[in-house]
Amino acid sequence: MCEKKPPVMTLSEGEVEALLARARGRLESNDYQIIADMAETIRWLDERLEEGDTSLAKLRQMLFGVKSERTEKVFPKEPGTPPKDAGESSGQGGSEGGGKRPGHGRNGALDYAGAQRVGVPYPGLSTGCPCPDCNRGKVYQMRSGQIIRIVGRPALEATIYEPERWRCNVCGKVFTAQLPPEAGTKKYDETAGSMLGLMKYGCGMAFNRLEGLQGSLDVPLPASTQWEIVEGVADQVSPAHDALVTEAAQGAVLHNDDTSMTVLSLKAENDGPGAPERKGVFTSGVVSVREGREVALFFTGRKHAGERLEDVLRRRAAELGAPIQMCDALTRNLPKAFTVILSNCLAHGRRRFVEQAGRFPDECRYVLERLAEVYRNDALCAERGLSPEERLAFHQAESGPVLASLRAWMEEQLAEKKVEPNSGLGQAMGYMLKRWEALTLFLRQAGAPLDNNIVERALKLAILHRKNSLFYRTENGARVGDILMSLIHTCRLNGVNPFDYLTALQKNAASVRVAPACWLPWNYHEQLGAAPPDTG
């Protein structure tokens, strides 16, 4: 580490622009772009530091993100503090503190539902045979043992069939051996398309990376070929995706949010004459909850999340009442053409106190611990399997007094000038109090969620794609990604194998086109025995 204090340089905005102009003419484009980005970063840092409520801790969070917002991470325990009881929690989500969550050890044989199972008989033994050791007793069969062996293979394997060919030396007729049924009729079968779709849009594996992996294993698979395959898959499964949008529109609770995305063809339209007024591009996520089923939808383009939600709600049955909408407090997340029962995300309100914990530790600890009680109550409702009405009554009895006390405390802090309203803590309190009714809808409306975390987790799939593939080249590429991400993540939310589901949709494409609502992740198994295989 350099201990010498660096020299302080002060440049005006004009001097910075002049420096960049000189550098543009003397440096290669890539080197110039690095210098320009560094200047932009310094401008951004300077603006943030000029804000009164931006601490170094908050600046670090802006740059590098937050690993955890749990109360126990924000406020580490003092040495010698006794551990909490197993039922206690110290933060958001109901899973903190206390006992260790189950399912974090080694995977047992039952966890490998997709594994091939091979029976290994003991030679010469059957029920009633004499014991081969003592020769006095008789053996009986016990439960088979289970030994797991895992091998590595290419993501896509290739098999070369070499049918024998024979030719008559008189008539010249050629006789070619018939291929076995498992050879199929296509070079890339349905499972190849499912695997490519799952790796690209479900796991973030960029086409060129998979091309390199396959090449290393001597099973070449060019990126251009991968694109042609997944585009064909998206076209085949699009009727099921369309039915999924209709299903989502009927949800009792709809979550929505968006994240930035790059589509090169849309970015190119931003410059020059005829440039659109709105230049941003987003991937919006909508997660609909209905009767225990969850539907995830992704939409990429210039529209905001609220406009995407409007597109979904246009398919809602007229006889259904207004749904609960869960989102953060941004107005662009609201549908303007439809009535909803608005619920705001409690985690967003909580996060503002997490950001101020370093400057106002006592006050923030008090708020976070009160909210932890609410999340703990919600976790108990889930553990007990309470109905929406029972959950509402439980929160009214247990969480209502806690939140009423918290609200009164915050109002007192601001009214008696114990907290400066323009400080970071005062703004956090103001945010909560201004949106109190929407943040606490779960105390008055059965089925209202506490936060928007389910759609934020869904958007991680789009963010994973953005980090690995950087962009979509065209709007059609974004359409393909949206369709496959929607189907894949909906499968995951409902405990369905997305690989098997995509394969089934492709093999039965003709039946899917006729009745797509019968081919959704939770009911497609009912159709497999009745539908004839697609031969198109």
Short key terms for the protein model shown above:
536 residues; alpha/beta; five-stranded mixed β-sheet; two-stranded antiparallel sheet; 46% helix; 7% strand; globular
Q: Would you write up a description of this structure?
A:
The chain has 536 residues and is α/β, with parallel strands linked by helices. Helices cover 46% and strands 7% of the residues. The chain has a domain at 346-451. 30% of the residues are buried.
Short description:
The protein is α/β, with parallel strands linked by helices. The protein has a domain at about 345-450. It has helices spanning about 15-25, 30-50, 55-65, 70-75, 190-200, 205-215, 225-250, 265-270, 305-315, 345-355, 360-385, 390-415, 425-435, 435-440, 455-470, 475-495, 500-505, 510-515, 525-530; strands spanning about 165, 175, 255-260, 280-290, 295-300, 325, 340-345.
